[in-house]
Amino acid sequence: MKQWAGADEKLNFRDFKEDFSLESFTNCTDFNPIEIYAYYIGRCINNMHNGVFLKYFLSYPIKYEKHQAEKIRESFERGLKKSLPRHVFGDEKTAKTFKVELRASEPCAYAISALKSYGFFRSEKLDKPVYYGVFDFGGGTTDFDFGKWEKSANPKFLYKMTHFSSGGDNFLGGENLLELLAWEAYAKNFQELKEKDIVIAKPNYDRIDTQRFGSFMQNSREARLNLQEIASKLRPFLENLDANIIEAIEENEEFSIESFEKDFKTMLLDRNGVETECDLKVDCKELLNLLKDKINEGVANFFAGFSKVMAENIDDECRAFHIFLGWNASRSVLVKQAFENAKEKQLKDYNQKTSKDDFTFIIYEPLGTEKSDKQILELTGEDVSNTPAYLKPTCKTGVAFGLLESRDKAKGIERHSISSNPVFKYDLGIEIEGKFHAKIHRDSLKPNEYQIFQTKEEWGGFDELEIRYSDKALANTNTLNIQDMQLISIALEEHEEVDVKVCCVDSQSIKVGLFKDDQLIYESEVEKLW
Hints:
There is one protein chain. The protein is an alpha+beta fold. Helices cover 33% and strands 25% of the residues. α5 crosses α13. The longest helix has 30 residues. The protein starts with a helix and ends with a strand.
């Protein structure tokens, strides 16, 4: 549902009886799954045993625009209201108490829980500001959030939380990686599966070669079910990798994972929907290297975001940067290994730039894990290993605990509220020698304010403009391969001796203007970047 609400596009579904379509979230007026979801949550929360609750706090994905987050709030408000007994709203005073409020983004809420759990609510830890980053590695996406935590100078609050910037990867997530592994397993067995007319669907990942399997890649029900079936066989492999298994795979030694076989039989569907038994062989080393590459890339993007934050926001007195790993997928040993490997290079680069030989990165385990409990004990002296689940934040429930902590209260947290749309999501550029070169950085684009993309000396008077774009933090380094970029072609009128400029309309839509002597002579249609 979060992906549907964020994508803002129409979807088609098939239930047990028939096909049906679901309007985009923005245009959804009748059947609203989020409202129904809120209704059932309300029925679970409000009952004879628990009583009735009238105040609700919501978190939201960091990349949502303001109108998307607000519509989610409205949907929850309607659903929750319908779940409550009617007589609750019969009393005017009680009815006014009912409130559904957007409080904090998901990574921001998790950061609050992590800061509290690891002892940063204690005054002795706040003699100087705490600079932090959250690596929120979930099932569908990875989000980054960078900020500063310190004592508040305002007597109404104890703490102040300053949000610097956010970022992430729209595809790096546990479930998406699982689909990518299934796609590669299909490739490994393609010749045998091709003979049985077994089709496959495109995984939910970027930079997929859609021509790789020709007509055997489809968007049909059979193809989707095949992708899901292969993925289900590979799930134990993805979820149970530990340091010993990884070492065994890399050294070509024997290993075992419960419920996983390197060679297995499974029932798949041909393009006509006929079930066929298939024998599949899996190259575990190949799959492991694929996982490492994708996670390493995500961590590299995180540190690219960190470098930008350091350059713009962090004072010279800062000697440590605190990294909080969040959500279930961050429990993977591959994530910790990627951070440990990357931080050495980052420290070396940062020391060369700033001459800070004593600077350090401190990585904090995902909340709720045994390693996290041990780390909390070492840092705070508090043993939380036996704390009841309903009182103990985890890498998943930490968002909920952080939301509660962010509520308005005496001596609470001073922070920025959701008051404006996110900045533009993409760097825009061109190809030079097979690399992406940014012409306009995302932070410089403002709604309806044109920025130069190509000068009249550079522009050839063509009838279309090719723009490469990326939402990855590494995009501003001019080192990314052009194959890793997205491409959009925008139709233009043919004019020579003009400056080509671009402006954003919202966080992911642009238009192109042609300017002669600083006068706009042509403006393209608005184009949305995906």
